[in-house]
């Protein structure tokens, strides 16, 4: 039985108040990370029949062309709302124009899009990725200072996320911008690990072959950090608060807290994936004919290893 019901036109005309379901088509990036799994779970547990929704979920396997196909399907099925967690920022103008012409509101979640016309989407909710990059530099500067290393030559490598995604762009650019204030820090190399553990491990292996003097790894998500940690261990080196190499990561998923407690990761900059209720709130307001904020940033924290054991039980993902 198809989740895309043919009775959608009914729900469209009489709305949720009649007991009909609001149909939401959600184009998800993929299943590349723990963050993504938590995000999918948040969306699926929010957009349930009990809550008055019919969710049509599509996993794009990290490919924008699959997302564009999914959005076209949603348009054809005449869903009530289209929600997109976009892989990359660019390339959305045409398909969003089609959604606009079909009169279907589009809500962007997590990563941002870069379109020529802002009316192509109704609202966005997600993280301030540039700020996350800034936070990473701030943490590192303070850490080096505390450990009497502030005047040392510091060699850094970066495992980047999917190139062209807001999470990659913000974290890379934010880090680069703020590290310019530290002339003794050198970025040896940056390479994408596609936000996955296996690719993160692979790239870290090659970094370790090229450089024998790496002081810091910046992994643009936790899963790539896990891969990097495995590569470092396999190379006979150590990492974390008492190790040879400092590991800075992003997301702060549950397994990152485990790594910090075990002593292999130094810090994880939080990125909150629990967007389901936030998107539902936007839809509720739109259904009630209210206006919504165009851009909604989620508040996030920084979790260094020394706080991990205490904080872990309070984490929801
Ligand atoms: O950091 C990473 C995921 O876009 C914020 O995507 C998201 C990023 C997250 O694969 O783990």
From TrEMBL:
Q: Which Gene3D superfamilies match?
A: 3.40.50.2300
Keyword list (alphabetical) reads: Signal
Q: Which Pfam families match?
A: Peripla_BP_4
Q: Which residues form the Periplasmic binding protein domain?
A: 24-269
- Molecular functions per Gene Ontology: carbohydrate binding
Its chief place of residence is: other
* GO cellular component annotations of the record: cell envelope
**Places the protein is found:** Cell envelope
InterPro entries, from UniProt?
Peripla_BP_I, SBP_2_dom
* The UniProt record lists the keyword Signal: yes
Sequence ranges of Low complexity compositional bias? 1-16
Q: Which domain of life is it from?
A: Bacteria
Which family is it part of? Belongs to the bacterial solute-binding protein 2 family.
Q: What is this protein called?
A: ABC transporter substrate-binding protein
Annotated organism of origin: Variimorphobacter saccharofermentans
